[in-house]
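Retro notes, structure queue

What went well: the backlog is down to a handful. What didn't: a couple of records were mislabeled last round, so from now on we paste the full input next to the output in the thread. Example, using Flagellar motor switch protein FliG from Paracoccus albicereus:
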Amino acid sequence: MAAVALTTRQKAAVIVRLLLEENGDLRLSALDRDTQALLAQEMAGMELIDRVTRDAVVTEFCDLLDAVGLVFPGNLDGTLDILGAYLSDDTNDRLRRLAALAGKGDPWERIAALPIDKIVALAQQESTDVVALLLAKLPVSKASETFTALGAARGRQVALAMSMAGNVSETTLRRVGTVLLQAADALPRSALDSPVVDRVGAILNFTTAEIRDNVLDGLDADDLDFAGGVRKAIFTFAHIPGRIDPRDVPKVVRAVETTVLIRALVAPGEADAAAGEFLLANLPQRVAESLRDDMRDQGKLRPREIEEGMTAVVAAIRDLQASGEIQFVRPDEDAEAA
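Corresponding output:
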């Protein structure tokens, strides 16, 4: 029995039908809408396919796969998913915006991927109706953060407007998304590679306690919100018990020269002494006892030498955290408020 001649679309329908039988999780939604519609229409017009024809279609499909050397996405969004990590942020954003404006990408996917601070900035400058659509399309976590940032009065207005968002057509929704994407592209982008708050915190990490306290007192008087952000970004020797997992203590100790570590462990002051004791308590007993012996044998140190020891430990922890070898424990609400 000879195989029945089928069109290319009919062959595609046969392959999809077979894949659906084998794997019910086949994501046809990843296809564009026109392709999905054509596939459904083609399958709706087909009935029985004999085994010979089925096997011939499968063989042809497998032969085509074997002949493939490389596969390119065929669209800009897919291409940028591959190249995104190798392009500058500006180039990546501009190309994705151009794709959305040309109708070749979903603007809402790009909006949902924006940092939360940009989304909040958009929400604060757009009309209530537009913000209602924005919150309706965002992932719940980002929608919640954005809604909270709006404040009670504006939040009530947006919540009321969201009750009417269900009547918006797909064309209007896409147009609003495109406009928001253009607005997001127009927002100023910092030329710095890290937030200013984090940068100030990192600088203060390696200053003396006296300088750090004086700077923070001044920031408290001039800009309380900025000062609070800087305090959260700071990590000092005294923060070790609340931010370092006890299981990571051996890694920290191995990263610091023993003579330098001893200088930090003999630090006076309640908070610094507690940090030193935390490190010792989470080391193997033999190692901890050896360090305690070295501490007892240590002569009198100048405050500057102790400060240098604590700074070296903090620097080692920062390096381990940056390389991914350890993770900071998230501070609890009491610690953040302190």
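Agreed that this is the format going forward. Reviewer comment attached to the example: The longest helix spans residues 303-322.
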